[in-house]
Design brief:
The structure holds two protein chains of two kinds.
Chain A (H helix, E strand, L loop, with lengths): L6 E4 L2 E2 L2 E2 L1 H17 L3 E7 L6 H6 L4 E6 L8 H15 L3 E5 L2 H13 L4 E5 L1 E4 L6 E7 L4 E7 L4 E5 L16 E4 L11 E8 L12 E5 L6 H14 L2 E4 L1 H5 L20 E5 L5 H7 L4 E6 L6 H4 L2 E4 L2 H16 L1
Parallel strand pairs in A: 1-4, 1-6, 4-5, 5-12, 6-11, 7-11, 14-15, 14-16, 16-17, 17-18
Antiparallel strand pairs in A: 2-3, 8-9, 9-10
Chain B lengths: L1 E6 L1 E2 L10 E3 L4 E3 L7 E2 L1 H17 L2 E8 L4 H4 L1 H5 L3 E6 L8 H15 L4 E5 L10 H9 L3 E11 L2 E8 L2 E8 L2 E5 L11 H9 L3 E3 L1 H4 L13 E7 L8 E2 L5 H14 L4
Parallel strand pairs in B: 1-6, 1-8, 6-7, 7-13, 8-12, 9-12
Antiparallel strand pairs in B: 2-5, 3-4, 9-10, 10-11
Helix pairs in contact in B: 4-5
The chains are: A alpha/beta, B alpha/beta.
């Protein structure tokens, strides 16, 4: 432990700029590094990512390690594993953080096993214990019904941070930091998977993650026709449409609009939950919303415990009247 | 195709949230009364992924479960769905583990099983939601891994996997043997058939202890843990919902629109 120093985060780059999750990790990592009195570094892995290094400094990094290689253009488990293993062994951080997203979910557990250390996935809070100086890793468990706090003494202490759980710092371009290039040293033949194609679902209207208002439907919507009604309401409110897991699993709506533990995490100003009971696994994806509005037939439904406003009733009767009145008020 | 599927018995995640209780003294979850445990839903989908390959090209499926107090009716579910064999790692020494000690025991069991082309796991278990055992197993066994599969097909000694990403999916090709974790987007697992249930009833699981696996008990269960759980608690929910009423449901809906407009939310 004595040899490991500093906090390191994996800084993802997308569309030529620092990804939102990277700024959230830098914000969370900065606080931990300050509490330890040690350095915060960011690792940037990819092809042509070096240009973004200064951005990571502006968002809080003291040092940026850039691993730039054409072979790293797309995420592959084996190539990113090889690079992150190399960087972790060279830099020897005390704490190593990634996002709980499609890269972190895949990379973090496997890397932890390779580095002979542990990782706590999907943390919503990270702190340094003032006595032991260990990383306190708080994560929802049992689908969000409970939370657990873990520690580990093996180095680096790894964790993934839930999307939107970290608070980015204000961008400050006058911040100074150091950029260090690390050679990827990759052997192409060691990459055992090949990405043959990437298929993106077309998003109609506003992206779920970016919307200020979300209208979401649950099992009680009953079928794809019901979601058309929610679409109409969403159009009026310039909102995005989301869903809990059952409508996605039943094929009423695309999987990509699932909000929850295993879907998207959203935090709009207003989240209108229609015929959603409010399972913990769904709340994991929307409890960061500023105001939850619930419409549900069951007065005992769990969603009312999270909601600011609610109507107990059949959505088929409530929603059309709600929409007509809104149209009148907004019109 | 020889396939292995790792399945975990968990407290039913569909049990009402109000029935969820923690014993803070022992930092553990109290199983809800009258709600039997189930196979973790993602693991059932992993069984389904293996069955679809078996349907298409034949093969054998061996389900492996680790734990104590494994109810035969529960852990035999993969058999009743169409799996061929069931291996149980059932011994007090396996109890109280974390991702490391569970993956270590499963890796030893899989080595003992020997021949395999694909190992399937659920993307995460419905109890601890750790999402690590699949990738950890692949690392311990030196296999390539593809996580979050929504579709798996096998051709010419390779698997083609549709891997879920936030706005769609990637088509990933991987050489075999490989480890694949399965996500809920795969679709509903099949129901057990009467014939399957009868066959599962007659089938005796193979039970292995740590000694059978030749694994040191310091590596498994609570002794093999590398993480320490300091605290387990239930977050407090506030419950200050303002219920909007009306003469009937439609009127309540209109009143909700007025109230949200007054509160300047919409």
């Amino acid at each position: 432990m004595a040899d490991n120093k500093g906090v390191m985060i994996l800084a993802e780059v997308g569309d030529g700029k620092l990804a939102a999750i990277a700024t959230e990790l830098l914000g969370a990592g900065r606080k931990l590094a300050d509490d330890l009195g040690e350095e915060l570094s960011a690792v940037m892995v990819g092809s042509g990512v070096g240009a973004v290094a200064q951005e990571a400094i502006a968002f809080g990094a003291d040092k940026v390690y850039v691993v730039d290689d054409a072979l790293l253009k797309d995420y592959r488990t084996d190539s990113y594993m090889a690079v992150m293993e190399k960087v972790a062994k060279e830099v020897m951080p005390k704490v190593l953080l990634m996002g709980q997203n499609s890269i972190g979910r895949d990379l973090a557990p496997r890397l932890a096993f390779r580095l002979d250390t542990t990782v706590t996935m999907d943390c919503v809070e990270l702190a340094i214990d003032p006595d032991s100086k260990l990383l306190l890793q708080t994560k929802p468990v049992y689908g969000g019904n409970a939370r657990a706090i873990f520690t580990s003494e093996s180095m680096p202490q790894m964790a993934t941070l839930r999307v939107k759980a970290g608070e980015p710092l204000a961008r400050d371009d006058s911040r100074k930091g150091e950029v260090v290039n690390i050679d990827a040293g990759l052997d192409a033949s060691a990459i055992r998977t090949e990405v043959k194609d990437t298929v993106l679902e077309e998003v109609k209207g506003i992206k779920l993650e970016d919307a200020n208002v979300v209208v979401a439907g649950g099992r009680g919507i009953g079928g794809p026709e019901g979601f058309q009604e929610l679409e109409e309401l969403a159009k009026l409110l310039k909102a995005a449409v989301g869903a809990s897991r059952p409508p996605c699993d039943n094929g009423w709506v695309p999987d990509t609009i699932q909000v929850g533990l295993t879907g998207k995490i959203v935090s709009p100003d207003v989240y209108i939950a229609v015929a959603i009971s409010g399972s913990s696994q769904h709340l994991a994806g929307c409890s960061g919303s500023k105001n939850i509005i619930a419409i549900n037939r069951d007065a005992e439904a769990n969603i009312f415990k999270e909601a600011a406003y609610g109507v107990v009733g059949d959505w088929k009767k409530v929603v059309p009247a709600f929409r007509d009145k809104l149209k009148e008020l907004l019109g | 195709m020889n396939m292995i599927v790792c399945v975990k018995q968990v407290i039913d995640p569909e049990a009402p949230p109000a029935s969820f209780k923690i014993d803070t003294a022992s930092n553990s979850v109290v199983p809800p009364a009258g709600v039997p445990p189930v196979i973790s839903p993602f693991d059932e989908q992993a069984v389904e992924a293996a069955l679809r390959i078996k349907d298409a090209m034949g093969g054998t499926i061996t389900a492996v479960s680790l734990g104590t107090g494994l109810l035969r009716d529960v852990v035999k579910k993969p058999l009743s769905m169409g799996a061929d064999e069931l291996v149980l790692l059932e011994d007090a020494a396996f109890d109280g583990g974390d991702s490391w000690s569970i993956a270590a025991a499963l890796a030893a069991a899989i080595k003992k099983i020997g021949e395999y082309d694909i190992i399937f796991c659920g993307r995460q278990a419905a109890d601890w939601d750790a999402g690590q055992v699949g990738s950890g197993l692949a690392e311990l066994l030196g296999l390539p891994s593809v996580t979050l599969a929504k579709k798996v097909e096998v051709n010419d000694g390779k698997a083609t996997v549709e891997r879920v990403i936030p706005d769609g999916y990637e088509v990933v090709e991987v050489s075999l043997p490989a480890l694949i974790t399965v996500s809920n987007e795969l679709g509903e697992p099949r129901y057990a058939t009467i014939k399957g249930i009868m066959a599962a009833k007659r089938k005796e699981p193979i039970v292995w202890t740590p000694a059978d696996l030749g694994i040191d008990t310091s590596q498994i269960g609570a002794a093999g843990r590398r993480t320490r759980m300091l605290r387990l608690f239930q977050p407090v929910r506030e419950g200050t919902c303002e219920i909007i009423e009306g003469e009937d449901e439609a009127d309540a809906g209109a009143n909700l629109a007025k109230r949200l407009s007054e509160a300047k939310l919409l």
